[in-house]
Structure formats: structure tokens, C-alpha cells
Amino acid sequence: MSINTISAQTVVCENSSCTANDYTLDTFYLGDENGVAFNAGYCDPGDVVDAHLWVNFIANSAAPRYTLYLHFNIYADGVYIGTVDQCFYEGQPIPTNVSLDVYQFSWDCGATITLENFYMSWRPNANQPCGCSNSKCYQEST
After folding, report:
1. Residues 42/107, Cβ–Cβ less than 8 Å
2. Rounded to two decimals, what is the model's pTM?
3. How far apart are CA 26 and CA 121, in angstroms?
4. Beta strand pairing status for 100-108 and 48-59?
């Protein structure tokens, strides 16, 4: 099993400069519904298992941030399987040091999972809407 993040030619929030650096992507991993990572030997290649895509972030600011927006496309062995385009923790502080379950799918054990067009944004205040942000964001660069 391997998970790669790559950038594509377009992103959902094309005019975002993403200069704030309040949060960055730490890791993505495949695991079960409880967040337990699939380690080598978890399943036999070709077996179809219920998989969850989990994400961890690093907070680079002590101040609370609110309303997390995520967008990315998911591929298994180069074949598109879905898009995450969702808001989490709307109007609430984004927790740190926790794993977030962002996508559930049937995974062919051994298939390489690739993420493209990764973009996330947050808000400095609880009363601001979810969505694109000019500076309060993070995206994978080429």
C-alpha cells in the first residue's frame, strides 16, 4: 500500500495565494473505521476491503482556526474513484492532534492511492462561511 499526493494543473480555488501557513498537511493514511492504519499484511493483494482515508494536519498557529474546507480527487492505480469536497467543523474550532476520517470506499488491497488537486482552507473566525480563502489555505505545489 502506498499513498502519494500530487498536484494537478487546476485547483478549485485558483486565485488563492495560501500565504497564512496556519495549517499544513501532515499525512494521509488508509485505515479501518476506527482509524487503525492498514499495515503490511493487513490484507491479501486483490482482496476488496472497506477502507477509510484519514488525514492529519499540523497547526502552525496557537490561535484557534475554524471551519475546515477540503477538496481533492482520489485515484486507485490511476483510475478516478471520487472527490472529497466537504466542510468539517463548521463554526467550530478545528481540533489539532487528531485524525479526521474524510472518505470511505471499497479498496482493492495493494492498489496505489493517489490524491490530486489537494486544497484546504480555514477561517480565523467562527462566523465566516466555509469555502475558498485567499490566504487562509494550504495547497500542494508542483
Report:
1. no
2. 0.84
3. 15
4. antiparallel
pLDDT per position as a tens digit, 6-52:
444 345 787 788 888 888 888 899 999 999 999 989 999 989 999 99
In terms of phi and psi (left: phi > 0; alpha: psi -120 to 50; beta: otherwise), the region of 60 is: alpha
Give bridge partners of residue 66 from the DSSP assignment: 93, 123
Cell 467562527, residue?
126
Nearest to 106 by CA among 55, 34, 30, 40: 30
Distance CA 87, CA 102 (A): 10
What are the residue ranges spanned by the domains of the chain?
Answer: 3-139
Beta strands in the chain (DSSP E): 3-5, 23-31, 48-59, 66-76, 79-93, 100-108, 113-123, 137-139
What are the phi and psi torsion angles at 40 (to 5°)?
A: -55, 135
Cell of 20: 497564512
Length of the chain (residues) = 142
